[in-house]
Predict the structure.
Amino acid sequence: FTPRGEAVWISSRDAGHVTVVDTATFRTLAVLPAHSPSGIFFSSRAARMGL
């Protein structure tokens, strides 16, 4: 989830992408290609993220 809960980021390791979904509308905001993503982290300042 983003720090304010506006979106959820879902890693799909076997599919090779990360999906970003709006938590209010459940609409897919983005599908980001990633090489076998196995998890997502955000820093406490929300300035950084990683896979």
Remarks:
- The chain has one domain: 1-36.
